[in-house]
Amino acid sequence: MDRCPTTVAAPIDQAAPIGPIAVRIGATAARIDPAVARATVAPAASPGLAGSADAARVRHTRPVDGLHIDDDHVTLVAMAPARPRNDLRQYELLADEWWRPTGAFAMLHWIAAARAALIPPAARPDAILLDLGCGAGLLAPHVDRLGYRHVGVDLVAVSLDLARRHGVEPVRADVHRLPFAPGSVDVVSAGEILEHVPDPSTVLSEACRVLRPGGLLVLDTINATRWARFVAVTVAERIPGLAPRGIHDPRLFVTPELVRDACARHGVRLTVRGLRPAAGALLRWLITRRGTVPIVPTGSTAVLYQAWGIKEAR
């Protein structure tokens, strides 16, 4: 499991135990050498203490067996459990990254542009584009001239507030239970959302339900393959701008077969193709952190893929 450091400060003069002692924080134990065994741990330190004002007051000197010691304090550096993968709270912590061109969500901007290229101009007045898992509204700049009323659905309030600032009508709701009438939406965008939900078939069923006959469904997601796990998790999470660490749980990745079958049951037959960043542009961006990277079609759906289809009249 990924773990993050927690720092606990202990005044030396509170106790004088004889022999080595063990200090346990959560599931992690650290033994203190008899030479510094007069240390005791301060009461109930918060898991968020590291980096706080309390931790900043500790004077770090030489390390001894995982401890930092000076004349007044022993500081134990323990390891507290990190957030679980695919944790919604990550989006709150990363709120300032959404609209930074070189921020943690840079690749989502590029994928949104590729998704928007599949969306035609609105065919009627007051046409609705429903953006599932809209985040901070990254699709908005690419569709704002197409004539749609852009409605975004998400569970993270801070993300919806950012989306509203970019012209999206925010709706806080679960994509498994959309608060919209059947056949009320002209376009449904489900971009980079299916790999974050526990039941993608239900989400796709809901997307098809609210789509009117003749309406368009567009989506992109990550395939459930070992190669996708390696590229999207092992590699991408180590490169700033491609994927924040822990943002994906590879157990939730979705096969094209599941997506096709779920939509076909509800009258939407999908065309599926692979996507990838343009290699040269990606290399330049990694070196310079300038510009954008086109997301281009590829013959392989092994990692990232895109799908779109029209709902049949019944």
In brief:
The chain is α/β, with parallel strands linked by helices. Helices cover 23% and strands 27% of the residues. It folds into two domains: 3-81, no CATH class; 89-310, Vaccinia Virus protein VP39 (Rossmann fold, 3-Layer(aba) Sandwich), CATH 3.40.50.150.
Describe the overall structure.
- With 314 residues, this protein is an alpha/beta fold.
- The chain has 2 domains: 3-81, no CATH class; 89-310, Rossmann fold, CATH 3.40.50.
- It is built from 9 helices and 14 strands.
- It has helices spanning 53-56, 89-93, 106-116, 140-143, 157-165, 200-210, 226-235, 256-264, 279-288, and strands at 3-11, 21-25, 28-32, 62-64, 67-69, 73-81, 128-132, 149-154, 169-172, 185-191, 211-222, 271-277, 295-298, 304-310.
- It has an 8-stranded mixed sheet with strand order 9-8-7-10-11-14-12-13.
- A hairpin with a 2-residue loop joins strand 2 and strand 3.
- The chain is globular.
- The N and C termini lie far apart (49 Å).
